[in-house]
């Protein structure tokens, strides 16, 4: 698909029809995720002018109108065909179940390719989650910044190296082509588009009505749980197990190398071969993961968590946390720390 879109983006609000209503078309495919379709209709559908008039007209379309299978036990009856894309000011492409299987570069189902070809050059195009694979296959993301679900980032990067993939953000906006990360990041993306079109007041009102934050801090990194490799399967495993058992105190490279019965030089080389990281990088990640665990599961104050995770000071922990996770420890705790219930809740100081 040829992309003549203005690289400067332009305001999608400029493309509104004479009646002031912005037309949004959601292009769905078999195996669609109902939540993603619902996000678009709910958020854009809640946007109102000061006089209470709808600001968006949202329609759902598909290459072949009729009953469309979802990834659940119910179907969706879609009345509109690809002609709905002809007059759209914004087109949103949600994910489908097929996106989660092995992908082939540039492969688009003929009906989807024909539908995308109907979109006007001035139309804003957005994807939710792995819907980004459709935009990439259509050539719409070449040379642009984009994102997708963190589980699919490696495959996406291998298939489309010409795309500037950012795996850490919740959404991207590059020249009128937008992408979002996982399913719920579609909320952040839609609010961003509403904010861009009609201002923060309208977007905030939609967020309040939907009971979601108008803007989330950080990116996908805060939602990725990294498994700790089994220490016993490699030559540096003993040293890593020792480090994990003593994260609360300073650890030196010399000390870790002695645990592995190696010289520092050999230990550093083997460590990188086995983990893909330097000992310092690996240790920093383990400290951050330990801090995340304590923020989620205890009420310990940040300074105490910083000590137990081996950062020494709260300031040091905040710096490492911001770089690695993309949010402050307090913001992370606010997102993931649920109410304490039952006798099993771990206690801690204020």
Give a brief rundown of this model.
The chain has 350 residues and is an alpha/beta fold.
Describe the structure in your own words.
- The chain is 38% helix and 11% strand.
- With 350 residues, the protein is α/β, with parallel strands linked by helices.
- β1, α1 and β2 (56-61) form a beta-alpha-beta unit.
- The chain is elongated, with a radius of gyration of 24 Å.
Q: How are the strands of the biggest sheet laid out side by side? A: 2-1-5-6-10-9
Order of helices and strands: EHEEEEHEHEHEEEHHHHHHHHH
What Rg, in angstroms, do the CA atoms define? 24 Å
| Chain oligomer state | single chain
Distance between the termini: 57 Å
Number of helices: 13
What is the helix content?
25-40%
Largest sheet: 6 strands, mixed
Low-confidence stretches: 6-15, 229-233, 340-350
Helix/sheet category: alpha/beta
**β-strand number:** 10
- Strand proportion, as a percent range, falls in 5-15%
Q: Could you say which overall geometry the principal axes of the C-alpha atoms support? A: elongated
Mean pLDDT: 85
Topology:
Layout lengths: L21 E6 L6 H13 L9 E6 L4 E4 L5 E4 L11 E4 L16 H7 L7 E4 L4 H6 L7 E2 L6 H7 L4 E2 L5 E4 L2 E4 L4 H14 L1 H11 L26 H9 L7 H7 L4 H12 L3 H19 L4 H7 L5 H12 L3 H8 L14
Parallel strand pairs: 1-2, 1-5, 5-6, 6-10, 7-8
Antiparallel strand pairs: 3-4, 9-10
Helix pairs in contact: 1-5, 1-6, 5-6, 7-8, 8-9, 10-11, 10-12, 10-13, 11-12
């Amino acid at each position: 698909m040829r992309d003549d879109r203005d690289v400067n983006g332009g305001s999608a609000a400029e493309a509104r029809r004479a009646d002031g209503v912005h037309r949004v078309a959601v292009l769905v495919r078999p195996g669609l995720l109902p939540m993603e379709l619902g996000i678009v209709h709910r958020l854009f559908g809640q946007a109102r002018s000061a006089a209470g008039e709808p600001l968006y007209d949202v329609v759902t379309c598909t290459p072949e109108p009729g009953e469309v299978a979802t990834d659940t036990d119910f179907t969706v009856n879609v009345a509109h065909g690809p002609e709905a894309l002809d007059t759209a000011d914004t087109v949103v492409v949600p994910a489908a179940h097929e996106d989660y299987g092995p992908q082939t570069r540039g492969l688009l189902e003929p009906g989807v390719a024909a539908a995308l070809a109907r979109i006007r050059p001035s139309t804003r195009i957005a994807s939710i989650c792995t819907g980004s694979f459709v935009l990439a296959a259509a050539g719409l993301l070449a040379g642009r910044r984009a994102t997708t679900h963190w589980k699919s980032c490696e495959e996406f990067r291998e298939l489309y190296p010409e795309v500037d993939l950012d795996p850490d953000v919740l959404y991207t906006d590059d020249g009128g082509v937008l992408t979002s990360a996982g399913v719920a990041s579609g909320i952040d993306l839609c609010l961003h588009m509403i904010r861009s079109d009609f201002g923060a007041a309208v977007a905030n009102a939609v967020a309040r009505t939907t009971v979601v934050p108008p803007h989330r801090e950080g990116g996908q990194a805060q939602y990725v749980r990294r498994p700790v490799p089994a220490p016993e399967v490699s030559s540096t495993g003993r040293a890593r197990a020792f480090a994990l058992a003593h994260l609360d105190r300073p650890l030196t490279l010399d000390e870790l190398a002695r645990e592995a019965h190696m010289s520092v030089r050999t230990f550093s080389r083997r460590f990188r071969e086995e983990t893909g990281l330097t000992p310092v990088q690996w240790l920093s990640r383990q400290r951050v993961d330990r801090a995340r665990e304590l923020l989620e599961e205890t009420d310990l104050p940040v300074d105490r968590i910083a000590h137990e995770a081996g950062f020494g000071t709260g300031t040091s922990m905040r710096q490492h946390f911001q770089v690695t996770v993309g949010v402050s420890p307090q913001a992370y705790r606010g997102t993931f720390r649920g109410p304490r219930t039952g006798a099993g809740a771990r206690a801690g100081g204020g």
